[in-house]
């Protein structure tokens, strides 16, 4: 459910902003100082007009100060000019310090929001990621967090000082003369009404724009992930058409946002010009009637202009706020998702043995992915040290069974137990130490071969990494590379063959030294030569561990001590009579 318009930013504030209260207070004090300097700015000019030019001191409280260094006209002019410069310098220095402090709050808060969003996103269950395009999630972490940063910086460097300045000038106008004050205050409802109406429109436009941009990012990521398929089938035009269609919705949303933005300033100008006109008329009449001096009127118009200027700059950043709100909504949608670590862990790590025996049981296990059923009432028991191969038709649920053992998903019915403990109740950290896997396609991160092997156990010694690499036959090809195991490989293992990537995956699993090993078609994409080498590595990996594998390859089936066939009926995933296998 969407949060109310104003609900998202305050939530981000409560969570990430409270620690900056001290800095905020400092920034506020600096802004107050700057405002006081700004309020003093027109007085030397007014004093010159009233005392030096018109020879009249009655209306100007600063008039007598002008004669501090002498009362001849040129000395008073010089004193006024120096006062203008001093006041401007003080205001500029306070402006600089205030901006530094306030902008820093925005920058720090947004960095924290980005880090927290990424950390949380990583911990969301696979069921979330299965339904979310990678590009869309990337766009949230990068672009939405960037928009939040923009609006936080605008909040601290424009909105807060702007509101402070506008209220300061309004108060000063009131103190100057209550009639001037009323004229100034009269502008505020007009500005507020145009602002609120535009903010709503702006938020709607910004939300549409972000959704359209995210969908574009999702498309780009998908096509680039499958770029070799695009090239193989030469379907570039198809994706061009999809991209153009989605770009059209981005354009529509962008034009709507541009229209809202363009409307804002003229509306505001019209609203505030009424105030300026009234002030000029009332003030001018007052000067003609001898109620006020010209200098007095100059100060009042300068205060009204001072009050209107921040309102104008606020209107310029209001689209930034609208975008920030829309993006905050999308970030909160991620932060509100329950992470996998929230699963209650009944057994604490300290109460569990450091190493499981490796017994696995499926008791009436069912698994549905949304509306799709993958396993129905599966009963299967695997003894510690057994090596079983799951076989059966495509889609019967073999990979799903493996995913349930490793805790990637929790069963939607029944229970999966390791050494008698349901996986749903086990701490994730312990489960990661007990179960390792070699999948159909080993995913490698950008970094060195050694980094990728160490991924399963970051604290492993160099010698242990080398030993795992040797046992998995990684060393055989790494020795021919320029820096051996320290050779850098690209994203997703670009630069290595399929068989080489699988060998790195085996080394990674060997280093994890877990009592349970899952093999999900680890040789399916390999030719017979590569398969032979990978099987040699796997033979070392499986020794002395409980192994559950899915494969149709005879070379792997020979490693199994039992082959279990799965078949599906409407009500049940059945286990066909187990066959002993050496
Ligand atoms: N992440 C997922 N989201 C939705 N449905 C899924 C997901 N993973 C698997 N499925 C569905 O669950 C069913 C079982 O899939 P699974 O991959 O476990 O079968 P499998 O026996 O390993 O198949 P194969 O032999 O083709 O690898 C299939 O109908 C599949 O479409």
UniProtKB/TrEMBL annotation:
Q: Where does the protein principally reside?
A: membrane
Instruction: Offer one Pfam family short name for this entry.
Output: ABC_membrane
Give the transmembrane ranges. Answer: 74-98, 152-172, 178-196, 265-288
Keyword flag ATP-binding? yes
Show which residues constitute the signal peptide. none
Localization (cell): Cell membrane
Q: What domain of life does the UniProt record list for this protein's source?
A: Bacteria
Q: Which InterPro entries match?
A: AAA+_ATPase, ABC1_TM_dom, ABC1_TM_sf, ABC_transporter-like_ATP-bd, ABC_transporter-like_CS, P-loop_NTPase, Type_1_exporter
The terms describing its cellular component in GO are: plasma membrane
- Look up and give the membrane topology term: Multi-pass membrane protein
Residue ranges constituting the ABC transmembrane type-1 domain according to the UniProt record: 25-323
Which SUPFAM superfamilies did the record assign?
Answer: ABC transporter transmembrane region (SSF90123), P-loop containing nucleoside triphosphate hydrolases (SSF52540)
- Pinpoint the ABC transporter domain residues: 360-581
GO MF, one term, reads: ATP binding
Give the record's keywords alphabetically: ATP-binding, Membrane, Nucleotide-binding, Transmembrane, Transmembrane helix
The answer, when asked if Electron transport is one of the entry's keywords, is: no
Q: What is this protein called?
A: Protein-tyrosine-phosphatase
